[in-house]
Structure formats: C-alpha cells, structure tokens
C-alpha cells in the first residue's frame, strides 16, 4: 500500500487524528480535490481499526451499473429464498465499506442507501428476509457535498448520516513543505535501479511554486516521467515541462490592463489578501505565490496594515 507522505502542519494534524477515529465505528466523510490521497486515508482508517482482519469493500459509485443497482448493492435470492448473488453490502459485513465518489449516486440509489444506513439491514432482491449487516461506512467525495445539497443533487439527510465526522484533505498547493519530500521519495521509487534524478536549487524553487492541480497524483506522474527521461541528471528549471517553467507560466497569465485603468495599490492589496487566504496565513508560502521574497511581503503587509 502506498505510504501517506506529510511534513506540513495541516496534514500532520489530520494524520494524528487517524488512530483515534479508526477505533470508532462512526461514519466518516473524506473530502478533497482529486489526487489528494482520500483513498489512502480510507485504507488507513480500516488498517488501524478493530475491523482490519475483515473485508475492506470499495464501491466506485460512479461505476455502478445503470440497471440492477439494487442487486449490485443488496444481492439477489431465487424463488426458494436461496441467495444466488451476495451483493456488495453483505460482502462488507463485519468490515469496512468505502463509498468512493459517493456524490455520483443517483437520487433513487441515495434513498436506498439511506434506508440501509438508518436500519443497518438490507433485503436482497427476491427475498422476504431482512439481513443485518454490521459494517463501518467511509464515504469519499471530490466535490463539496454541502453545495450539492443546495443544488438538489444530493440528499441532505444522507449527507448528515455520512459525515458524522468530516475529514477535509488540503490540496498540495497548501502543503508546500511536502513537495520536496515527495519529489525525493517518488524519485527513488521510480528510479528502478538507475541513478536518481536530482534537482538544482533553482529547479526545486520552481517546483515548490508550481500549483500542482493534480495534487499528489501529479507529483507521482511527474517523477515517473523525469525518471524515464532524465535518469541520474541534476535538472535545471529549463529542463522541466513547459507549463512548470516560470517564464512560460507567467506568460500564460498575462494581465491585460482595462481601458478604464486600475488602482494599482488596490490590486496589490487584493492579491496579497488572496495569497494569505489561500495559504491559511502562511507568509512564506504566500510570498512564493506572489513571486516575491518573504521580507518584501512583510514590508507590504506593514504598508497596508494587514
């Protein structure tokens, strides 16, 4: 199983809660952007729980069949009441059930799942007998389910059942301290006997300022690519993919001056506030986002009395 890599304060705090949460049977909703490691957190909650010797069953809700969903979840019995198809929920009995991409469930299926969560029982198709299922439920979503409730695409009562404890994984752009460690770890992992790729100080600075929209998964793919193309080399900024090179990245985000003009001081103030907000007040990371030194940022913070 892949290791959860973290040195940043926000991620380290989240990981410290895992052993405590693992000992409980309450439902947990794990939310975060794609590639942040939600599945790893779910696996860790199961591995550290009292159910670790039992089944860990993952249902990809986005891949459930459009027909016979009830059979897929609850199973099927023949005319004599004999079970001919177990169903995913019964298969998880005694263990942990992970509902991946739970936001993709159609509303009718959400209703079925809510009844199961409320009663702890399921009824296979064709059977008149209810089956008690002892299972711990973990749900995973890459979107804000509160917003989905507002948009009437997700049931509010199901959300409340699933998020007895909510876990929100921070994106990698808010975990700047973890990037260098991940580059070293995955660089060694993907070297496959070759010399490990290294990065100059300038290249590492460039990579630390990259937004990594694909999060940890993007770092893994990047390290795999570098290991194949540049084994054993010490890379400079110009050796990095075009979208990571500072000049090209900046050129892709050229600000166009409006005909009516702007208030430059107000724009600067707004950008500083956005950078501080995006980094949770971390001034070093905010300075990297703005492309200035920390001292320069501190001067401007004092200048605007922020």
Name the beta content range: 5-15%
Please provide the ordered H/E string of secondary-structure elements.
HEHEHEEHEHEEEHHEHEHHEHHHH
Strand order of the largest sheet: 2-5-8-1-9
- Give a short account of the largest sheet: 5 strands, parallel
CATH C-level name of the largest domain: Alpha Beta
Number of domains: 3
Low-confidence stretches: none
Distance between the termini: 45 Å
Number of strands: 11
Radius of gyration: 24 Å
- The CATH architecture term of the largest domain is 3-Layer(aba) Sandwich
pLDDT averaged over residues: 88
CATH superfamily of the largest domain: P-loop containing nucleotide triphosphate hydrolases
Shape label: elongated
Number of helices: 14
What do these coordinates show?
- The protein is α/β, with parallel strands linked by helices and 306 residues long.
- The chain has three domains: 9-170, Rossmann fold (3-Layer(aba) Sandwich), CATH 3.40.50; 173-251, Helicase, Ruva Protein, domain 3, CATH 1.10.8; 264-303, Homeodomain-like (Arc Repressor Mutant, subunit A, Orthogonal Bundle), CATH 1.10.10.
- The protein has helices at 9-22, 38-47, 69-74, 88-91, 107-119, 145-150, 156-162, 176-191, 201-209, 215-229, 246-251, 264-278, 283-290, 294-303, and strands at 28-31, 56-60, 76-77, 83-85, 96-100, 121-122, 131-132, 136-141, 165-168, 198-199, 234-235.
- The strands form four sheets. A five-stranded parallel sheet has the order 2-5-8-1-9. A two-stranded antiparallel sheet has the order 3-4.
- The radius of gyration is 24 Å and the shape is elongated.
- 27% of the residues are buried.
